[in-house]
Amino acid sequence: EVQLVESGGGLVQPGGSLRLACAASGFRFRDSWMSWVRQAPGRGLEWVANIKQSGTDEEYVDSVRGRFTISRDDAKNSLFLEMHSLRVEDSAVYFCARDDVDETFGFDIWGQGTVVTVSS
Amino acid sequence: DIQMTQSPSSLSASVGDRVTISCRAGQSISTYLSWYQQKPGKAPKLLIYAASSLQAGVPSRFSGSGSGTEFSLTISSLQPEDSATYYCQQSYTGPWTFGQGTKVEIK
Fold it and tell me: What is the per-residue pLDDT across A1-41, written as a single tens digit (0 to 9) for each?
């Protein structure tokens, strides 16, 4: 079964750090670009970051560049998002998704999301 | 960054109605345009890719059209299970960007 399962969300104070993880199964993870997409409460979708195959290149939205780091462990079929200097406005559901740059050029596989709340 | 603008922000229609949602890109994106359906508390689901290609398993009442800067998603005969928020997204150049969403409700 094709699946992405996120973990690591929680409540953190402003200025704090959190590490999200995403476990992949059922598809060729090592050959896939992967992304993190977030959705603030009651708001729309926002792409956050992506990473190419083998971790050769990463891209970030301006609002998180320098604070967030995306990484992957192909041996464990896992994607990560290291988040530092968290702000209240980073509160959101964080989804991992496959960035299908081979065929659809869309996000064709999604996880169920993990909730990050930044609050004092 | 390429801004994506959807219209309307919300609509209400009856079962069986034909519904069209528009998406405008801030610059030409060729056909690098996807459409997603999201139901409350769920992850988005890819419906349409490359502006007009139907993702596997998606009902044929969904269709997409357009190129350049103007795109549309059409539901030919609205069904109760189509109540959701729909998003367009460009993958022409980074950062990937989404429209603000269109909420579709059933009368």
Answer: 999 999 999 999 999 999 999 999 999 999 999 999 999 99
- For residues B86 and B44, is the Cβ–Cβ distance under 8 A? no
Contacts of A99-102 with C-beta under 8 Å, sequence gap 24+, read A99/A32, A99/A33, A99/A34, A99/A35, A99/A50, A99/B96, A100/A32, A100/A33, A100/B49, A101/A33, A101/B91
Length of chain B: 107
Residues of B in contact with A45 (CB under 8 A): 36, 38, 44, 87, 89, 98, 101
* Identity of the amino acid at A90: D
DSSP for residue B32: -
Q: Which residues of A touch B94 (CB under 8 A)?
A: 50, 59
